[in-house]
Amino acid sequence: ISNIRFKTKIVVIGAGQAGLSAAYHLKRSGMKIGRDFIVLDDAPGPGGAWQFRWPSLTLSTVNKIHDLPGMSFSDSLIANEPTVQANLAVPHYFDLYEQKFDLQVFRPQRVERVTMSHDRFHMDATSVRLSAAGIINATGTWQNPYIPYYPGAALFEGEQLHTRDFKSADRFIGKHVVIIGGGISAIQLLDEISRVTSTTWVTRTPPVFQNGPFDDAAGHHAVAMVENRVRNGLPPLSVVSVTGLPYSPEVQDMERRGVLNRLPMFTSITPTGVKWDDGSEIQADCLVWNTGFKSALQHLQEILPVESTGGIRMAGRLATMVESNPRIHLVGYGPSASTIGANRAGAAAAMELRKTLGLI
Ligand code: FAD
């Protein structure tokens, strides 16, 4: 860390969908970027976590990417091509967005640790030190992959990967792969890997496939349920996981290929495979955990009061405000962990934090 110090009103940490939305609304309110507020991001370029998604994830295989406020995704040149890689199209869109609204993002600047003294936040980033009166944290989940504990995991002699480590199916050729998880990522990786090698699919509960478009009512219900949890200080559940599994042509093809024969979750891991309580066992070379992510909040641990349940009690219009310290907003957290939720959260947080700081 150099001795470069910035003193500002608000620091936005993270420039994915949530951070850019917050920055847009702060700027639109008349605050000057670089002086009144600063946006930091630790990634090498624009795009938030989208720049790290696996190459075969295309615009036709993502759920849906909602527009950032003020600019349509379809205005970015390559967005209309369904076969284009999401890890190219979204960063391209975010890049154009940052340019259009002149949202300068300091990058790569990783915020390692935030402390509070004399009513101000102090943070060390990669090459700068900052002090601010308020924080909008928008660090997403990609950097905090979750793998549940199963007995024997440490003794497994094969390879264990998480969704975020996946690049291409080719590396699995000739191996037997156990795909773990019942979400969209699990299905997509199962599809790709089962085309080149043998697989076993395990999920905790039987998967439910859905014909037709995603159910908006179910989506609203899921968001309300997660919002209720965080308002009560409980850890959030994933919002995107409840949109259901599309019964797509790819899934129908997997059914025909016989790779959708799902088994219940195993109960332990052996050095050479996985095992169930009834004594049955499968030999495996790789375990691919598609078991989700948790919020990446490690840098805030000294200033975030965590409840005994492991959650953070949230308040505010869209539950972005930390109840015990309204100068901290978490966007893209809990009910706002989707592209549309992140948009709305950015707007709510920008408005409420300005109010709290007496800027309106
Ligand atoms: P991110 O895009 O993760 O942005 C966070 C940013 O913060 C990153 O640039 C990161 O580098 C930076 N950062 C993290 N920690 C620090 C730090 N300490 N200091 C500085 N910078 C930091 N949602 C949908 O709505 N539709 C979809 O189709 C969809 N598909 C998905 C597919 C996958 C495989 C996954 C994992 C998620 C998907 N989601 C989808 C959920 C998606 O992650 C969110 O909707 C949304 O993109 C998250 O935006 P965000 O701004 O909260 O986080």
Give an overview of the whole structure.
With 360 residues, the protein is of the alpha/beta class. The chain is 22% helix and 21% strand. The strands form 5 sheets. Strands 1, 2, 3, 4, 5, 6 and 19 form a 7-stranded mixed sheet that branches. It has a 5-stranded parallel sheet with strand order 7-16-8-9-12, with helices on one face. Strands 13-14-15 form a 3-stranded antiparallel sheet, with no helix packed on it. Helix 1 packs across helix 6. The model has no long low-confidence stretch (mean pLDDT 94). Bound molecules: flavin-adenine dinucleotide. Flavin-adenine dinucleotide binds next to helix 1 and helix 6. Keywords: Oxidoreductase.
Number of strands: 19
Nearest-integer average pLDDT: 94
Helix content: 10-25%
Backbone CA Rg: 21 Å
User: What structural class should be given to the helix and strand makeup?
Assistant: alpha/beta
- Strand portion, in percent? 15-25%
Q: Span between N and C termini?
A: 34 Å
Name the helix and strand elements from N-terminus to C-terminus, one letter apiece. EHEHEEEEEEHEEHEHEEEEEEEEH
> What general outline do the C-alpha atoms trace?
globular
- Count of alpha and pi helical runs: 6
Catalogue the unreliable spans. Answer: none
Ligands bound, unique = flavin-adenine dinucleotide
Biggest beta sheet attributes = 7 strands, mixed
